[in-house]
Amino acid sequence: MEAGIVGLPNVGKSTLFNALTESKSAQSENYPFCTIEPNEGMITVPDDRLDTIVQYITPQKTIPAVVKLVDIAGIVKGASEGEGLGNKFLSHIRAVDAILQVVRCFEDPDVIHVSGQVDPMSDIETIEMELMLADIEMLQNSLDKAKRAARSGDKEAQLRVEAINKCLAHLESESPLRNCELTELEDKSLKSYGLLTRKPLLYVANVDEGDVEGKSELAEKVRSYAAEVGAGFVCVCARIESELAEIDPSERGEMLDAYGLKEPALNVLAREAYATLGLQSYFTAGEKEVRAWTIPVGAVAPQAAGVIHTDFEKGFIRVNVYTVEDLVEHQSENEIKNAGKMRVEGKNYVVQDGDICHFLCN
Fold it and tell me: Which ranges of 70-119 does DSSP label H, i.e. alpha helix?
């Protein structure tokens, strides 16, 4: 699964992407559409639990979870009608599983704002409207085909027609599809359309160097709006994070202290992006490696085993499970077993975030 970084031009998307992926490419010039084709990169998901596990189980290597990010070109007003190569860029958003919307919350006369003034709520409204208009066009274009199939008695097509009409009515009330109530079957019938406003959303407030906690009026507006609509929110200073990514890791602590940060804000962003995608981690731990494996929230044990190897899902027998807390308390797997804390779970077990698993497969 992957998340797309979107926003208006010149809000700091590419700076943020380069910092996240520690890209050493030259910084883009300060003008719209410097990103034409989407850039892709893998970022690690920082997880303190890995550090805890290796205190008790010493591996040859430690492998964290990763998530894929796509840096998509800036969207402008009229994108749904083709402005600024909008249709091409919207198709890139349609391909991702979640949206990370970067919102400019800083003043800087040297960085041109596409609308001439810094107004994060106006920026959010512009992008939301363009995505809704694109969804309306997609659904309207699909409706006739669905109706023809429905007239032939195709029950799936009949369900799709009902779902499309429900979504169109919702969009016409100027409300995104994230808060449109669809049944599981209705939602599934529309999956292939890649509806933009149905995707989970994380707002990323790009703040000034003097506002790393996002306490300015601009950042507070975005924070409040995100809470109101049930979206995620992260506060980041892309300029600081870009500088941190460029210096030697051994020197980053001093710079973090100077800004009053406990860790790079990008660590928080990576974890929030992971959660926005509906993902979580379980661990395997042994002398060869300690590793975080990525699964969807709600995955059952055979599905989790299948992430390691597809044959493990087919041949799943059972899984032995314990927690990081169990390991800290008892300090070894043998002592966990002796304490009766090593659980044996079957194929219906829903794997929990942070479980340490040993799978037995045929």
Answer: 86-94
The DSSP line for 219-282 is HHHHHHHHHHHT-EEEEE-HHHHHHHHHS-GGGHHHHHHHHT-SS-HHHHHHHHHHHHTTEEEE
pLDDT at 142: 93
SS3 171: helix
The residues, any chain, with a CB within 8 Å of residue 277's CB and separated by 6 or more, are 1, 2, 3, 67, 97, 98, 200
**CA-to-CA distance for 213 and 225, rounded, in angstroms?**
17
State the pLDDT confidence band at 18, using cuts at 50, 70 and 90. confident
Identify whether the C-beta of residue 207 lies closer than 8 Å to the C-beta of residue 235.
Answer: yes
- How far apart CA 36 and CA 32 sit, in angstroms, is 10
Q: How far is CA 172 from CA 136, 140, 198, 318, in A?
A: 8, 12, 15, 49
Q: Model-level pTM?
A: 0.84
Long-range contacts of 277-280 (CB under 8 A, 24+ apart): 277/1, 277/2, 277/3, 277/67, 277/97, 277/98, 277/200, 278/1, 278/98, 278/200, 279/1, 279/65, 279/67, 280/352, 280/353, 280/354
| Confidence at 78, pLDDT banded by 50, 70, 90 | low
DSSP 300: B
d(CA 327, CA 56): 7
- 124/99 Cα distance (integer angstroms): 13
Alpha-carbon distance of 46 to 241, in angstroms, equals 15
